[in-house]
């Protein structure tokens, strides 16, 4: 597999299987962080899990109701906030480097789609 970098308006995600330690990358137009393979696996898995949760909740709440959902692993904490059809994402990396990052609602659809296509988790 070759190195892959996907990006769109307000988001970036990448995978480099040849890298020694930091094979993944996530970020925005303004910042990025390299992740280990396990960290990237957790990031993609939790992102897609939160997306599924927001889709499922959509039928349970009123249109004007905002919600917040969290998911975490030993390495990452993630939170989505907003409406089921439009929400932002925040994450905290808890393994060694202790990094925090976020994406606005307009960046999430592209990031979610790209995370699902990396097939690393």
Short structural summary:
The chain has 121 residues and is an alpha+beta fold. The chain is 26% helix and 37% strand. It contains 2 helices and 8 strands, in the order ββββαββββα.
Provide an overview of this structure:
The protein is of the alpha+beta class and 121 residues long. It has helices at 37-57, 108-118; strands at residues 4-8, 11-15, 24-27, 32-35, 67-72, 76-83, 86-93, 99-103. A hairpin with an 8-residue loop joins β2 and β3 (24-27). It has a 4-stranded antiparallel sheet. A 4-stranded antiparallel sheet has the order 5-6-7-8, covered by helices on one side. The radius of gyration is 14 Å and the shape is globular. The longest helix is centred in the middle third of the chain and has 21 residues, at 37-57.
Helical amount = 25-40%
Q: In sequence order, what are the helices and strands, one letter per element?
A: EEEEHEEEEH
Overall spatial form: globular
Strand segment count: 8
Terminal CA distance: 14 Å
Radius of gyration: 14 Å
Q: Strand share of the residues?
A: 35-45%
Structural class: alpha+beta
Q: What ranges have pLDDT less than 50 throughout 5 or more consecutive residues?
A: none
What integer is the average pLDDT? 92
How would you characterize the largest beta sheet? 4 strands, antiparallel
Taking strands numbered 1, 2, ... along the chain, how are they ordered across the largest sheet?
Answer: 1-2-3-4
Multimerization status: single chain
């Amino acid at each position: 597999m070759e190195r892959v970098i996907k990006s769109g308006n307000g988001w970036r995600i990448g995978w480099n299987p040849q890298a020694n330690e930091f094979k993944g990358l996530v970020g925005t137009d303004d910042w990025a962080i390299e992740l280990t393979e396990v960290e990237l696996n957790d990031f993609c898995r939790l992102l897609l899990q939160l997306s599924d949760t927001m889709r499922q909740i959509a039928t349970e709440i009123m249109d004007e109701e905002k919600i917040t959902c969290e998911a975490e692993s030993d390495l990452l904490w993630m939170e989505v906030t907003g409406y089921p059809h439009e929400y932002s994402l925040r994450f905290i990396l808890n393994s060694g480097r202790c990094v925090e990052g976020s994406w606005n609602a307009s960046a999430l659809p592209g990031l979610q789609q790209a995370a699902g296509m990396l097939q690393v988790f």
